[in-house]
Amino acid sequence: MEAQKKVFVERVGVRTEMMGYSPLAGRIIGALLLSEPPYMTFDALCEYLNASKSSISTNLHFLMKEGTGLVEYFTLPGDRKRYFKISIDNWLRHIKEMPKEFQNSNDLLGEILGYREANQLDGEFSHSIKKLLSFYEFMLDKLPSLIEEWEEKIILEK
User: Fold this and answer.
1) Cα pseudo-dihedral 53, 59, 61, 65, rounded to 10
2) Which pLDDT score is estimated for 50?
3) Where are the alpha helices (DSSP H) in the chain?
4) Which residues, given as ranges, of the chain have pLDDT below 70?
């Protein structure tokens, strides 16, 4: 079972690296998603991931502050250790903010396309950018209602 768990941790690391995170940040996410209980101490993360304290510290800082707040910590009364866990609420908040991210990307790509067209740059590549803009516009149109539909579904399930 432990070998399978490590395979999953590595898979999460690879997947999150594709999303712009460091491989170690992804492994931390994977370790926390698969731990039972669903939290780990700093030392346990260092040992489990066979990583240096500074690497774990840097990546935890990113995941708690600079990233999306995917990881948070808590303490227990009378215990000086910090326990790290995945923040599902922050993860959901990040997903709900995707329309803003799509809008920002859409705005920037629109400006880039305007520049390319004004300067008569490669029409074929500009056409590809138009296709990407079309996707962002489609997602901007659909995402808010999908999020609302999901929220209503969750309320009904309670």
Assistant:
1) -170
2) 95
3) 2-18, 23-34, 42-49, 53-61, 88-96, 98-118, 123-157
4) 1, 66-67
